[in-house]
Amino acid sequence: MTPAILEARQVGFAYRGAAPTLTDVSIDITPGRGVALVGESGAGKTTLLRLLLGLTSPTSGRILFDGTELSLRDRGRMRAFRRSVQTVFQDPYSSLDPRQRVGRIIAEPLRSLGLVAGRPGGSHAGQRVAAALLAVGLPVDVAHRYPHEFSGGQRQRIAIARAIVCEPRVLLADEPVSALDVSTRVRIVDLLAELQESHGLTIVMVSHDLAVVSMLCRHTAVLERGRIVEQGDTAAVLGSPGHPYTRRLIDSVPRLPTGS
Asked: What is the pTM of this model?
């Protein structure tokens, strides 16, 4: 069996003075197997993603990285973790600093992780930025421009370039296409699928869009009120759901009316 890169082991989480957001959640992220976290708003999907991203610690249970418990206080371990696990956020308009040129934005993980020395525009950093831009289908000269010069889809490509510039193993994506129009959404999904193959990325994605889930993720976990009520092969979960909540989720997907 392939060892997991990331694991949640009986994880629980509660904000101070509030009811638990997550209860007894366990899930494995293994190389090459995309994972979708689905459920209604408030189900705990984004909280679980934050725990897997190491932005906060669970109230109970453990998050494991390469088999070892993740400790936010262990700087050396967290640096290795940050190089291996990157993220793409939902809103391409707020996730990029408007005051910075695109090249500097994309190079930020290289600087913060100490992967390049010297100026952000130095030769090695510049080569890494150029390679990331080409990987997401943007020309190299984009590096000299500012985010406001680009459409939402182009900005999300820039955000993806920033995420892959340090060659991570896992990409955590929180509704990465929900803020985009339909045609742009399709192109970004195609790009993520291509990066899964070309860069060996394992994608963990929060999404309400079950069509996107079926295209990118082999494994699906369904959350209801902070608990995983069903998980398994995506085709089985979406095609033959075993839990009533999963069936309700699938039935709630809008469908075009059929002609008479």
From this structure: 0.91
- Measured distance CA(207)–CA(224) in Å, rounded: 14
In whole angstroms, give the CA distance from residue 30 to residue 214. 17
CB half-sphere exposure, 210, CA atoms < 13 A: 21
Q: Per-residue pLDDT tens for 131-141? A: 999 999 999 99
Structure tokens at 212: 């996107």
CA distance linking residue 23 with residue 58, whole number of Å? 10
- CA 23/CA 12 separation, integer angstroms: 4
Asked if residue 191 lies in contact with residue 133, where contact means CB atoms within 8 angstroms, the answer is no
Contacts of 24 (CB under 8 A, 6+ apart): 10, 11, 12, 61, 227
Q: Which is nearest to 70 in space by CA: 29, 35, 110?
A: 29
**Under DSSP, is residue 118 helix (H, G, I), strand (E, B) or coil?**
coil
How confident is the model over 196-216, as pLDDT tens digits?
A: 999 889 999 998 888 899 999
Burial of 235 (0-12, 13-18, 19+ CB in 10 A): exposed
- What's the pLDDT tens digit per position in 204-249? 999 888 889 999 999 999 999 999 999 999 999 999 999 999 999 9
Enumerate long-range contacts of 137-142, CB under 8 Å, 24 or more apart.
137/191, 142/102
Instruction: Report which DSSP code applies to 15.
Output: -
